[in-house]
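Re: that chain you flagged

S.,

Sorry for the slow reply, it's been a week of failed gels. I finally had a moment to sit down with the sequence you sent. For the record, here it is as I used it:
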Amino acid sequence: MATLENMRAPQVLNKDQARTLMRQVADKFKFQHSVADWMVDKGVMSLQDFQQTVTSKEEVETKIIDMMPRETQWVDSKMVQTARMRIAWASTFQAQLEGEKKQSSAESGQDLLPLTE
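Prediction finished late last night. Pasting the structure tokens below so you have them in one place:
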């Protein structure tokens, strides 16, 4: 499942590019843009930054959702937004693994050679 395959980002993005990227992730996983914007304002400038913001799915709630400004208006519910963020965060690792597999396959030439019987 290539959940974020088309959302590869260069190592260094400016703030507008990072905001666009994180809003694309928010749209894909249906969490609200205010969360994506808050993360960019706190320094998340790439998918790698997003991965490194927390070390577990459980920390998504304590280090991202619970740190949002008190006046945040939750679109569905805080619980639903937390679940969606957890899925988005976990999906970045799946996308990274799939990208590494494709790269490894290309480097070994496996994707270029026809299968013979």
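What I noticed first: DSSP finds five helices and no strands in the chain.

Talk soon,
D.
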